Amino acid sequence: MLSTTALLLSYKSSSLLAGVSDASLPRSFSSSAASSLSPPFHFLIGKRPRRWRSRSCRRGIRSMPCSSINAASVGGGDNGSFRNFMLNESTFLASLMPKKEIGADRFIEAHPEYDGRGVVIAIFDSGVDPAAAGLQVTSDGKPKILDVLDCTGSGDIDTSKVVKADADGRIVGASGASLPVNPSWKNPCGEWHVGCKLVYELFTDTLTSRLKKERKKQWDEKNQEEIAKAVKRLDEFDQKHVKIEDANLKKIKEDLQNRVDILRKQAESYDDKGPIIDAVVWHDGEVWRVALDTQSIEDDPDCGKLAEFEPLTNFRIERKYGMFSKLDACTFAVNMYDEGNVLSIVTDSSPHGTHVAGIATAFHEEEPLLNGVAPGAQLISCKIGDSRLGSMETGTGLTRALIAAVEHKCDLINMSYGEPTLLPDYGRFVDLVDEVVNKHRLIFVSSAGNSGPALSTVGAPGGTSSSIIGVGAYVSPTMAAGTHSMVEPPPEGLEYTWSSRGPTADGDLGVSISAPGGAVAPVPKWTLQRRMLMNGTSMASPSACGGVALLISAMKAESIPVSPYTVRTALENTCILIGALPEDKLSTGQGLMQVDKAFQYVMQYRDFPCVRYQLKINPSGKSAPISRGIYLREASACKQSTEWTVQVEPKFHEDANNLEELVPFEECIQLHSTDKSVVRPPEYLLLTHNGRSFNIVVDPSNLSSGLHYYEVYGIDCKLPSRGPLFRIPVTITKPAAILNRPPVVSFSKMSFEPGHIERRYIEVPLGATWVEATMKTSEFDTTRRFFVDTVQICPLQRPMKWESFVTFSSPSAKSFAFPVVGGQTMELAIAQFWSSGVGSQESAVVDFEIVFHGIDINKDEVILDGSEAPVRIDAEALLASEKLAPVAILNKMRIPYRPVETKLTALSSSRDRLPSGKQILALTLTYKLKLEDGAEVKPYIPLLNNRIYDTKFESQFYMISDANKRIHAMGDCYPKSSVLPKGDYTLQLYLRHDNMQYLEKMKQLVVFVEKNLEDKDTLRLSFFSQPDGPVMGNGAYKSSVLIPGKKEAIYLGPPVKDKLPKNCPQGSLLVGAISYGKLSSAGSGEGKNPQKNPVSYQISYVVPPNKVEEDKGKVSSATTKSVAERLEEEVRNAKIKFLGTLQQGTDEECTEWNKLKAHLKSEYPKHTPLLAKILEGLLSRSNVQDKVRHQKEVFFWFPVIEAADEVIDSIDTEELAKFFAFKSDPEDEEAEKMKNKMETTRDQLVEALYQKGQALAEIESANRDVESASEGSKDKDGNNDQSAWEVIDSDLFEENFKELKKWVDVKSAKYGNLLVIRERRSGRLGTALKALNDMIQEDADPPKKQLYELKLSLLEEMGWGHLVTYERTWMHVRFPPSLPLF
To answer: What letter would DSSP give residue 662?
Structure first.
């Protein structure tokens, strides 16, 4: 995500230089916060920005149908040419929020009360700040924002824990803080729901970064203050003790030095996880209310207290919101669900949503020129951008947003989100949108995308869904001069270069209409500015949506039934054409929308039925595929005439009356073609409610190579002025064949001006797999910037797109390489950025040369089955001689897992019930993972990943947590790699749908966990020229030259079994890449990584079963014991083992355990393993940690000390020490057995010493606590009671510690706890804390809570308050009370 707080941002071209394959196409907003000289930026982390661009070159003009009402080109009039003009203050301000371009200003001037009043818009976006400028009230004084919802769940807090207030009116919050409750708050039942959250989880990355800097500055001041104190004490000690020989003095100095070192290291490792806010929810007898404690955010300790918080309820009820603190200036709203058990704190995930809402509806009473398009409209904010994912949309967010839009009876939806799609007009979300539009009559407006200038780059859902009005981005000269502050604006309006183009893969136009794609609009308060410039189709969509709101406002006032069908027809039939070429419609849709003319259309034809004409087109004689237009793209389809069957089906709204609307419906339609020499339809068609089919003949055989666009449209014979009732787009991209060998194609002397696009269509030769291209520029003065895109469309794949954004500061040449698919048409689109070179009198001249290369192979994906057999690969060069230099690596491991637990639940009806009444269900699948070493991993779910719109599954979300419930990774259908330390983890996968059968089928869903191998573990595979090469070790293959017409076979050998990565289980997959050629310019040392070569393919290796251990199952023949002795040993060991299995949870179980213990001790006295098991049993008794906190339970530790002493006394430590003084012979079986036995004995001794030390320390601690609590109290005789533990010699701990020190490193993570206690007993807190930090650092397992609790107590004792606060926050990070909600 790029910063959105600056009005002008410099563009970093490096982010756009790499090519993008169909597998890596991004999800993104359709907008940017940028200068006019930059492509649109996006607020998404880890995704590449989608860009969009401008007009086609002029090659002649054909008439195209647009409107019956004054249809005209944008070349003139108010929206047209401004070659010589000057801005004044008012026109400048007006340009910041463009309205003139779409006729909105004229419309409101003519109809001031039709300014959006009575219209409610649902903003599907990143969230809207209700405190932002212009978003408080409408033009007629009504509340602007009716509801603020977080549909993603990213702000949800579990408040199911219920507490009661104590006698002092205080409750214990979920964070553990004691919170006073305001006595004036009504709570009839006295139950308080509590929850807490790290506030950074609610903030954007930009805001978090700002707060971290400010908080770090404050923290550093406190830390430096403590460092100064610590250094002063050390200096005073050094001055007092010049020469130190006494051991105790040395330890004291070491302690002082440790304090200084700890404070300095803490500054280096400081990692601010943010303040924790406590939330308290209760029912006041009427509504649910919430109060927050935000003291941890505030600088002033008297601010942010819970009792001083003004309680909030669901935003919809009172329309009140809060602000966390003046420091963050972040506004939030709240909603409560599930009887107070879930609190949703709603914050925005980026400024994008507020900006979008401002364009559509902002009202500034003092600054009317900065009003949004429809200042009288109201809105609801539906946050679909998940804060946990950096503002990415999720299926959950999208579905809940649709539910909310219907529930609030919205008229309009604006959505400025999207991504490329596998299948157009397909998927769960599209199905739900169809229902909302067709049944509930909502009008859905969405951005077409920012991936231009190439064709077929429109994104889902805006550019690919029939029920949605997809909007392209237009820039006028006034916008260029004012909004973008250009020195010299373009002479006429045009589509932004980056605006996505149609058609869709199934031939639909893609872009419906165009609207201004840039504005300076309101942004959230946390940005610390009122307005910001953003441009993108994200801005065009709300501009169009605001225009539609004006139209609906007028229709309601005029009592005209509002229908998405009527509105869309009016918009499309009254647009102003942008550009003079027919194919410009692929960029602009029907043109620039005009609100005033659309209203005239609606008024004129208000009595006509509300009908949508659904088109289903397929090749004659074939039932599939069904498309929405005709798209002839490949060479084979352009060589001869084809016949197409068109089915036209009138669609009425679901509430249409059969007798009054459906039966009488009959239209005589005259069919027109924009060029009958190419596209020939019948002349007339009688259309009834049941639909009608007809045939079209398309003959592209006589067309020249290049882009051609035509339309067949139907006109009402009785009233032609209605304009086209439906349109059938026909797009033909006739490619040029490359016949010369080697295959080289050059495009010379292409002349470019700002916004100009050159498109070339090439039939990629069969056998070509990659391209090496060179772009040369000349004859220009100022810096020029170009988009260079290529697109190929393959069946059931996202468009295969490569793109580069290049800058030429002076005439020069640049080289590119990218993959291609042989036999498929490739579009090459070169566009000079619309604002690049403006003001220059010179055109840039471009020469572009493409050289096709290719090595044809017989396997697109190579699978090694785990056997020793190699895989044969046949390679052939079909175009020209190529060097065959195969390279293959395996650098990832995929381990399959099945769920260990499944849970199917019905979700809350308050926000998860569909408009149809169906309840959404959730399936939670739990997987257990174990990492033997730290690694970079990510979940991989082949069925679900990489699809959000083009899938029939509703949504997915995963979380990976450790044993302490700390979340280490989370994601949705686009999983990201996360670095996880060694340990055990739980992966939970959350799936949603209303169909139980679908979810039932997913209960055994296999999830792969993909682990990136380190460089040292990456396997480089070998190639051979003979099939026996991998076994015989001969015939190694390096490289050769392929000659056209001659195949060559090579053999890929499996990896050497001994080189397989450790912890690689049977059935897992090793995956990587294989390539066969490299760049012609590559040197001898280059090309060793197949993924860096021009084209690579996936390779997989199935890990076979592990080899059987040779020694497994062997029984030693050397034994000197008799059968009776061996039997006695087995019986004894079985009894000891049985003792260890007994539970001790109740008094009865403890009694039985004690009886068996006594019996075994009498039967096997001084038997160390038995005594060690008894000690283990004593320590395993439940609630030990609670018992030692009370005086009456302190005697628990005496049996532990006694049991430990028995273990110690049973061991001859002198003999043990002597044994380990000598090395044993590893080849002597008996010696090895003795070694193992003695090591076990040593471990039992060490454990006994350690547990004895722990027990002695607990007794001392309890003694101090009781003495403190009973200070001054006496018995009735006036004498102090003798403490029961005074019988313990205080020197015992030190003696025991010294004994332990003989056998182990007491600084290790396992035993260092006693070292910490020892130093603490001696008052050397700095040394104790250093030892504890070393233990924590060394401990590779998940963090142990008791160690951090001990650290907190040490910090408190040392008086380092700033570190206490810091560590308490981290305690909530490391040890959350529960897993977060999905």
So the answer is: I
**Which of residues 43 and 545 earns the better pLDDT score?**
545
Query: What ranges in 75-136 are assigned the alpha helix state H?
Result: 89-96, 104-110
pTM, to two decimals: 0.90
Rounded Cα gap, residues 30 and 13, in angstroms = 18
CA separation for the pair 876, 1135 (Å, rounded): 72
Residue closest to 553 by CA, chosen among 588, 595, 584: 595
Among 105, 115, 125, 789, which one carries the catalytic annotation? Answer: 125
Paired with 1050 in beta bridges are 873
- The two tokens of residue 1307 are 């600084």
d(CA 671, CA 679): 11
Beta strands at 513-516 and 468-475: parallel, antiparallel or unpaired: parallel
Kindly state the tokens that stand for 31. Answer: 């907008």
Give the strands of the sheet with 322-323, arranged side by side: 156-158, 342-346, 331-337, 322-323
User: If we measure between CA atoms, which residue out of 659, 354, 403 comes closest to residue 530?
Assistant: 354
Q: Is 1198 exposed, middle or buried (0-12, 13-18, 19+ CB in 10 A)?
A: middle
Radius of gyration of the chain (CA): 37
pLDDT, one tens digit per residue, over 555-565 is 999 999 999 99
| Confidence at residue 1188, expressed as pLDDT on a 0 to 100 scale | 39
Alpha carbon distance, N-terminus to C-terminus of the chain: 23
- Residue 524 CB neighbour total at 10 angstroms: 29
* Residue (of 1101, 1149, 1138) closest to 867 by Cα position: 1101
Per the listing, tokens 């070292």 go with: 1315
Euclidean distance between CA atoms 1021 and 872, whole angstroms? 14
CA angle 439, 442, 444 (to 5 degrees): 120
Token couple for 411: 């008229």
Look-up: residue for tokens 């959250």?
Answer: 197
Task: Classify the C-alpha dihedral 1239-1244-1250-1252 as positive or negative.
Answer: negative
Maximum Cα interatomic distance, the chain, rounded to a whole number of Å: 121
Two tokens at 791? 């697109």
Identified catalytic residue from 56, 538, 1075, 1210: 538
CB 111 within 8 A of CB 369: no
Examine the residue annotation and report whether 352 is marked as an active-site residue of this protein.
Answer: yes
Instruction: Give the sign of the dihedral formed by CA 998, CA 1003, CA 1009, CA 1010.
Output: negative
538 is annotated as an active-site residue: yes
The amino acid at 780: F
- The CB-side HSE value for 455 (13 A sphere, CA atoms) comes to 32
Q: Which is catalytic among the residues 28, 67, 293, 352? A: 352
**For residue 445, what are the β-bridge partners?**
414, 469
In order, the DSSP letters of 1267-1293 are HHHTTT---TTS-PPPPGGGGS-TTHH
* Unique residue bearing structure tokens 């809402």: 357
Which residue in the block uniquely carries the two structure tokens 């017989």? Answer: 858
Tabulate helix, strand, coil % of the chain (nearest 5).
30, 25, 45
pLDDT band, very low/low/confident/very high, at 84 (cuts 50, 70, 90) = low
As given in the structure block, the two tokens for residue 347 are: 């914050």
Buried b (16+ CB within 10 A) or exposed e, 802-827: bbbbbebeeeeebebbbbbbbbbbbb
Contact 442, 150 (CB under 8 A): no
**Which two three-digit tokens encode residue 1320?**
């603490």
Return the bridge partners of 642, or none: 698
pLDDT in tens, 984-1013: 999 999 999 999 999 999 999 999 999 999
Token digits for 678? Answer: 């190419």
- 689 catalytically annotated: no
**CA 880 – CA 901 distance, rounded (Å):** 57
Q: What is the pLDDT of residues 491-549, one digit of tens each?
A: 899 999 999 999 999 999 999 999 999 999 999 999 999 999 999 999 999 999 999 99
**If DSSP codes are grouped into helix, strand and coil, which group holds residue 1187?**
helix
Q: How far apart are CA 691 and CA 666, in angstroms?
A: 10
Q: Nearest-5° angle of CA 1350, CA 1353, CA 1355?
A: 110
